[in-house]
Amino acid sequence: MRPDLRYTESPHHERRDWANLRALLPYLWEYRGRVLLALGCLVFAKVANIGVPLVLKGIVDSLDAHRSAAIALPATLLLAYGALKLGNALFSELRDVLFARVRYRAMRRLTVRTLAHLHDLSLRFHLERKTGAISRDLERGARSLSTLLNYLAFSILPVLIEFLLAAVLLLGRYPTVFTMIVFGSVIAYVAFTLAITNWRMEHRHLMNRLESQANNEAIDSLINYETVKYFGNEDWELRRCDATLAGWENSAVLSQTSMSALNFGQGAIIAVGVTLILFAAAGQVAAGQLTLGDLVLVNALLLQLFIPLNFLGIVYRQIKYALADMDDLIRLFERTPEIRDAPDVVPLQVTQGELRFENVDFAYQPDRQILFEVSFTVPPGRKLAVVGASGAGKSTLARLLFRFYEVNGGRVLIDGQDLRNVTQQSLRAAIGIVPQDTVLFNDTLYYNLAYARPDASREEIAAAARMAQLHDFINELPAGYDTVVGERGLKLSGGEKQRVAIARAILKRPRILIFDEATSALDSQSEQAILQALRAVATDHTTLVIAHRLSTIVDADQILVLEQGRVREQGSHRELLQQDGMYAQMWALQQQEQAVRAEEQLLGLD
Question: HSE-up of 20 (CA within 13 Å, CB side)?
């Protein structure tokens, strides 16, 4: 979110703010009993707080020599004063304790709900979305909810209750002029604070943006050190950074000046309000209509009301930030999943495992079609390979089979069942994949292997690892199955990660297997080992192989040649060579490249 645009006010934004505040209600409703108890404690705490000036008035009146010749120590009032102070602290802490469960449960529920929604959104969304942005959505969403609940429960609501109690006290015991002075001062204080805070936020946002820009320019010039030196542009880089810092300096000075203006203005309003209260109360005391204790009470009450308002600017700013973050999250929730199960869908029933594409058309974007009337059938227990140049649409077939996208035309069927008429969960449970790039969780090997079927026993996981020729390698590691693989599995080689993917496919026990260029990043020796494992896994499974190296799919029952999203040739390896078409040309070219590499290795050039 850009800081310069983020907090622009408009009626539309205000309506969004109120809508976002209403979005908090479901999270409070679950613990409505606790919320009501917390509100009760809040009221008791504020009653005790308002009672303090009343008792203080009684103490002052008791010690006033002009009212009584015999001055006695007002022990009862002094004890009451201490009890009210204690009660205020006790009920305030009880409110915090009761509300803590509400606050943190709301954060937990919102985080889980956000994560669930992100998982429901389509692959298209996640390919277009930056991981860092999604992470910030998760973090800011829970934090904004916590901030809003915190400030509403501990800052805004307590002040409102205290104002209400103060109004009742003033209107019930004193002339209207006192209420007018107190609340006129408070209204002026609030209005001034909000106005200056809004003004300060503009300068602060500009200051932050310029600081980020200057930092980016400085780092960029250092990263491109050699380029700067090549062209002798050191002075240019310094001038560019200094110009940005000059704008930052001006904004920083204005921001600090506005802070000083805010502090002075708040102090001036308090001083004027207290002075007016003292004049009005002193006149009443001099006329004998009020006691000295009444003067102390109204003065203490005014100062007491201003104490929580000292943080009004901070509270207001944080609430606006939180509402903006909440708005980001609400907009995320407004994004509907592209792929949804229809109301009448049923679980997929896999009996034979026949896979069929019927005249499938597909486009990621409306102006760029990827597949054109693609049709083929993979009989139960057979292997079909798909080859073609990069961008021909090979990997798109796997994505459509997993129903990450909807076809634009035609049908994809498993055992005669249209994938749009079955649940996504049952569909994906029936398919296993060994992808081109195996991405692992930053956890143990055991966790990554068990991810295919979390309820699998340790013996089943070890058996899958043996079939993938991985078990012996794991046992040689110091930590064995408890070895942490690192971020995205970076501590493992490409071949080792592929074996993990194969073991997961075995453990999942799917009826249909997809090998998506599973050996494209491996050397020849590793490739042969992986191919041997893949052939063992694919036995008696319906298998779709997406391949780049033709040598890996010569044993396929059928080979499909894709060109620009269209099926150009189809047949076995021998049949396609005899046709002397595209496949034969690709085969000859790869055989030539392989011969050149072998000659280079023989001569020691590689």
Answer: 27
